[in-house]
Each structure stands twice: as structure tokens, then as C-alpha cells.
Amino acid sequence: MESMAIRQSDVTQVSSVIKAGTARITVEYTWTKDMDEAFLDLQKAMNPFAQNKDITELKITQHDANLSPVVLVGMSHQSITDMAELRKIAESYIRNELIRLEGVAEVTLSGEEVSTLTIQTDPYKLDAFQLKIEDIASRIESNNQSISGGRVSELGLQYLVKSSSLFASEDDFENLIVGYKAIQQEEASGNNATGTATANSNKAPVFLKEVATVQFLNARPENIVRINGKRSIGLSIYKEMRFNTVKVVDEVTRQLAVIENALPGYHFQVISNQGTFIKSAIGEVKSSAVLGVILAIVVLFVFLRRMGTTLIVSLAIPISIVATFNLMFFNGLSLNIMTLGGLALGAGMLVDNAIVVIESIFRNQEKGLSIKEAAINGTAEVANAVIASTLTTIVVFLPIVYLHGASGELFKDQAWTVTFSLVSSLFVAILVIPMLYIQLSGKKVKLEEVKSIRITGYSRVLRKLIQRRWLVIGMAVLLLIVTGLLTPFIGTEFMPRAESKTFTAVIKMPEGTQMERTSAAVGNLEELLYAIVGGDSLCTVYSHIGEGSGSENAIFEGENTAMMKVILSPECTLSPEKVIASFVESAKNPDGLELTIQQDENSLSSLLGSEGAPIVVEVKGEELDEIAQLTEEVKERMIGVNGIYDVITSVEDGAPSSYLYLSAH
User: Fold this and answer.
1) What is the phi-psi region of residue 472: left when phi exceeds 0, alpha when psi lies from -120 to 50, beta otherwise?
2) Which end of the chain, N or C, is surrounded by fewer C-beta atoms within 10 Å?
3) What is the C-alpha to C-alpha distance for residues 530 and 572, in angstroms, rounded to an integer?
4) Distance between CA atoms of 70 and 511, rounded to whole angstroms?
5) Cα torsion through 549, 39, 603, 599, rounded to 10
6) Which pLDDT score, from 0 to 100, does residue 433 have?
């Protein structure tokens, strides 16, 4: 399958993770590849393997950011602790109320339990009545069924005939006859002088309740969900691909509030919410852009000292932004973090051309020209310079749209937005500013008007520097060299680390550990966290024990794995970094507990694959045993490096096994 996958066009890498009975193969393509076409080609190439009888399931899925839930909600009740009862409400009412919302694709439950009828037989009583488990199962199957008996016609109407003997309660099962027992009855014969007794063999029914205990019990759950140590049910809400994340999250949040009011005693707690990061990021960019525009206007007034001129230049900013929105619309761009960042970046540049043009117009008017002539001559004098300066700025950003890979996908929209804003500001400066000056100025400006700020000492400094031009050039070259030498000390990273008071702990116990023991270990870690932060009121801990946590490493999930999502409250004085460091140091366990910490950043980091470990060392070779030995050596050396913690390897220990060797003799 790997060799077939690597033969596909535009494939860059094929990797696989193999576990007993399960395997996951990841196929990576170039950024320019049409993924719909790649999906169909790969599906066609894998079809022959689907016919293999040894393969029970072959599933091909395409990586999508929407595969992770947009909202993760914890559901609990004040008094109900039976997860089967909570499941009934969650499935029959809450799930239906959420899934009917526009944009919600699916709602899945975790931590629920299912009530099942359990029949616990007594092996000694079965032997006494000469019954077997198969006999009881056969009796239940033959009596608990509904059979169609055809149709009956009467008075022109047809009736369906059904024989129904379905069991509805525990009593129905308990009173089921599963066999018969023989009884001995002695009768004295009056005609027989010897008093000989004759034994008549009769049979009495044996009911299921005589050989077994019948009761409804909750089946063993696939996973366990707790919020601050209290058993709960997790609701993972997924959105449809074409819908806006923030809109879907807001709809879900409003509906949860309505449901909480309609169901007294039930409590819903939002654990993770993709819309929070998006709204906060866009809000910060918006406020930064508005603040930048305001500061640009203030600085403009400080230097020009003219209210009318400042007003004219200030009007150029919203006009240019509206024009930029039009160009973005026709180019298929939306308002997101990158495009708003481009607008914020171009906000200061929008007034540059306007200032140059209006200053030229004002200078011509001071020479005695009429307002109309000053506007025409002043704009014509600087038009070439304004166009040249704008184009030189555009050519810096425009090549970014031709970048390939993640960088191109990330900054392409921003480059287009900056380009559109600069083009708009150019047209506004050349066409709109002269018109506004004519309309708002009215009459000639008097020469006694307040003059703008002039830096008088600049000319003297410039004359001295020109006399020592080789010294200036040498200093500039020296500064360039020093800057290049300082670059390695600055540090580089793909994505900036966002401030977040949330982190996730992934726990792995030794293979073969049962869920109950894993749950107890997670409970100890929860208490440890409360002790570090100073109480459960300062943090929320959402624990998911077992498989089904929704992570991309689902192939490794089982009863020995768990996930803890820790949300520090705003009142918590400790930083997430200090909490993580103390938690990792205190949770060191020699019994094989592995703890991996992931600090939650944003969905963009997840999409671009930058949320993994900062340092990854790959050991390649032919022999698996040698690779495992070398990997352990590399791990030991990395542990000794200052500043590195939580070093783990992907070499997994096998599940505990018992071998039974049969003797041929």
C-alpha cells in the first residue's frame, strides 16, 4: 500500500504508523495539487486492497481542519450521576436541538453509558438442572421475537397479522421457562396388599429466575469524561465546511443557554471554542487598525497645523479603505486576520501620497495661484513622483503572491490587500484629493495662516554629513554587517506563540492497563493540578479517559490513554509556563506513566502543523531493534541538554502477551 501510494503524482512523503491489527498511512502532496483529484486517484489505487479478505476495513479520509470540533461542551446534572440517564437526555433532546442549527454538521457524545439487561447465571444451578448457557440463549431468542403471519380480509378491509412476544420488562425475562425438572410423586395402591409404591414421573417448569439473576446494569463504557473530578458527558460539535466558524459557535452558545433554561438542574460548560481565538484576533487587528488611523491623523495635524488640510487628508483614509474592500470582493478575499493585518499595515501608507499631493497644492496656492490652478499644477508636479513611490512599495509586496507552500498560502491574502490599498490610495491622492481641496478651501488661503512645523537644524546637519560622506557610507556598511551578525541571536520560528491560559496533557500508561487504573491515575494528576494552582476554583480540568478523544493519534488510543484539558481562570496568578513546569516535575512516575504537554495556541497552528514538539529527531535505519537502541541513546543524551524537558520516543512497547506452548507428546 505504501509503494502504491508513493507512485501517485505530486506525492512528497508517505509515512505510516503500524500497530497490531491497525495501521495508518499518511500521504502528503504538494501545495499546488488538486486534493479532490488526488483523493479519487488514491481511492482507485487502493481498491484492489479492499478485496483482500484479511483486511476488514479500509477507509480513506482527507485531512480537514473541520475534522476537529469547533465547540467542546461538558454536560452534567446537579443530582443525576447515572450516565445512562444523562445519555438519554443528551441523545433524544440536546443533540437534536443542536444539530438542527444552521451550520452544525454533527454532534457526538463521549463518556456516556448504555443500560443493558444483564443475565448472570449460576453455574451450580445450571448443572443441577442439567442446563447450558446455549439452551438459555436459544430459549430467549425463540420467545423474544415478532413474527409476521400474513393478511386477513374482513368486510372489505385487510389486516396485517403479527405474532408478538417481545419482552418488555425484567419480569418477562425472569418468568421465562428455560427447562423442566423431573419430580417424584408416591401413590399408595389400596388393592396392593404389599403396599408397593409406584413412582410416576412428572415434570415441573424451570424459570430463568431460578438459575440466573436478571437486572438492568450500565455496560462498561468505552471512555470516561470528568469535569473537575465529576462524571460528565462530553458533546463534540462539528460544523459544516462552508459555514463561518464564529457564526456557528455563537448559534451553539445561544442555543445552549436556551436549553439550560428549559432543563433545570442541567449545566453546560464550554471547554474549548475555536470562535474565541478568531474573534479576539480579529478584534485586536481591528482595534489596532483604527488606532493606527487615529494616530496618523493626530501626527498629521501636529505637523501641518491646519484643520482643513488635515480633514482633507483624513478623508482619504476611509475612501481608500472602501475602494480596497471593492477590490477584495472582486478578487474573492474575505475579512480575516491576514487581510485585516494588511489593512492595518497599509493604514499609515494611505496618507503618504495624500500628504505629498496636498502639500504641493498648498505651496502653489501660496505663490498666488487660484485654488483651481493650484490644484491642477500642484498635482501635476508630484504625480510622477507619487506614482513611482507607490509602485516601488507595491513591488515589495506583490511577489509574495507567487510564493509556494505554507508561507504563500499564509501571506498571499495579506500581500493582495496591501497592494489593493496602495493602488486605492494612489488614485485617491491623484483624483480625489485635488477635488476635495477645491470644494473645501473656497477662497485663497491667507499667508498669515499658521505655518507648519519646520525642522530648521536639519539643513546644517546635512551639510556637515555631505562633507564627510565616506564616513557616513562606512557607518552604514558597518551597521549592515553588525545587523547580519546579530541575526542568529534573534531566533526564528514558523508561527509566533500566542498567549493562552489553556494547555492539554496527554497521559499514556503501560500497554494493557485497564481503564479503571488509568482513571485512578488521572484522578491523582487532577488533585496534583489543584494543589499547584491553589484550588479547583482557579482552573477547569476536562479529563477524557479511553479512546475517542478526537486527536489525530487515535490509532494509539485505548484504555491505557487519557487526555486532560486544563483551562486556567483569569484569577489564577501563575503563568501557564510555571504551571506546566511544576506539573511535569511533580508528575514524574517511575511506573511507566508518560506525560506529554501541548500548550494550546490556535486553530491556524493546528492547520499548518506547527503545534507539535519544537524539536523532533528522526532515527532511520533498516533493523528495528538497532533503531530502538539508538533512539534510546539519543533520548538519554537529549535529556542532559539544558532547557529541554519531556523527551519521549515513538518506539512503543508491545501489549503484554501470554504464550501457550502445546507439547506434541
Assistant:
1) alpha
2) C
3) 11
4) 31
5) 50
6) 86
